[in-house]
Amino acid sequence: GEDVEQSLFLSVREGDSSVINCTYTDSSSTYLYWYKQEPGAGLQLLTYIFSNMDMKQDQRLTVLLNKKDKHLSLRIADTQTGDSAIYFCAERWMDSSYKLIFGSGTRLLVRP
Amino acid sequence: DGGITQSPKYLFRKEGQNVTLSCEQNLNHDAMYWYRQDPGQGLRLIYYSQIVNDFQKGDIAEGYSVSREKKESFPLTVTSAQKNPTAFYLCASSMGDAGMSSYNSPLHFGNGTRLTVT
Predict the structure, then answer these.
(1) Å from B105 to nearest chain A CA?
(2) Residue B15 phi, psi dihedral angles, 5° rounding
(3) How far apart are CA A45 and CA B32, in angstroms?
C-alpha cells in the first residue's frame, strides 16, 4: 500500500528536543523528505535524506533513517515556540510518476 | 525571487458552479502538481503534469480537470461533479524526475487556496 504513517500530535516544552516519527512503505524509496506547514500556509521543505544514508544533520535538525524497519525520524534540538507547526514526512514513490506520498502530519505544540 | 503563486487565497462558490484555481511558477520547473488537504489529513494528489501539454490523474481526480498549455501555469478546475469540494488546495512544482531514481527533486509549494462551497 501507499500509507505513510505518523503520530498525530506531539507536545514539548520550549528548549527540549522534539522527535517526530514516521513509517513509510516502499523499500525502494530513494529520497525521504520532511516538510513544515504553518497555519494557513503551504508546505516548506525542511530537509531530506537519501536512502543510502543513516543520518543527516542540518543545524538544529537531525534526520535518522532505519531502512530495515522503514522508519524515519526528525529530531529538533532546542525546540522554540516558532517551531509549532504541522510536520509532514514524504517518500518519493518509485513508479513512473516519481510522485511524493505524504503522511497525515504531526502537529507539534511547543509550550513556553 | 522565484516561487509559486496561487490565487486567490480564499474563494467562495455556490454549489453547482465550476471554479478555477490559478497556479503560476517562475522556477522553470518541468513538473507541477495539485494536492488537496482536508483537516487532520495528509495531502492527496489530484493531478500532476511532468511536461507541457501532458498530465496524469492522481489518486482523487474525479470531479477535477486541469490543463498545462504553458510551462509556468497549471490551473485546476473544480467542477460541479466534485461531491465535497470544500478544502485547502495546494499547488507544487519540481524539476521533474529526469528518469533517474537517484535524482533529488523535492516539491516546492505555493501558499494554497482555501475553497468554500455552500
Answers:
(1) 9
(2) -55, 140
(3) 16
Contact state of A94 with B101 under an 8 Å Cβ cutoff: yes
pLDDT at A97: 66
Phi, psi of A83 (to 5 degrees): -85, -10
Per DSSP bridges, beta strands B54-57 and B43-51 are antiparallel
- Residue B8: is the preceding peptide bond cis (ω within 30°)? yes
B109 contacts in chain A (CB < 8 Å): 35, 42-44
Residue type, A58: D
A41's grid cell: 500556509
Q: Which residues contact B3 (CB under 8 A, 6 or more apart)?
A: B25, B26, B27, B108, B110
Query: Are the C-beta atoms of A33 and A50 separated by less than 8 Å?
Result: no
Higher pLDDT pick, A97 / B86: B86
| Residues A51-105: tens digit of each pLDDT | 888 999 999 999 999 988 989 999 999 999 999 999 999 988 766 666 788 999 9
For residue B56, the chain A residues in CB contact (below 8 A) are: 97
Closest Cα partner for B18 from B58, B61, B97, B76? B76
- Angle subtended at Cα A8 by Cα B113 and Cα B57, rounded to the nearest 5 degrees: 45
Q: Which of B60, B32, B31 is nearest to B46 (CA)?
A: B60
| Chain A CA closest to residue B49 | A97
Query: Which residues of chain B lie closer than 8 angstroms to A4, CB-CB?
Result: 42
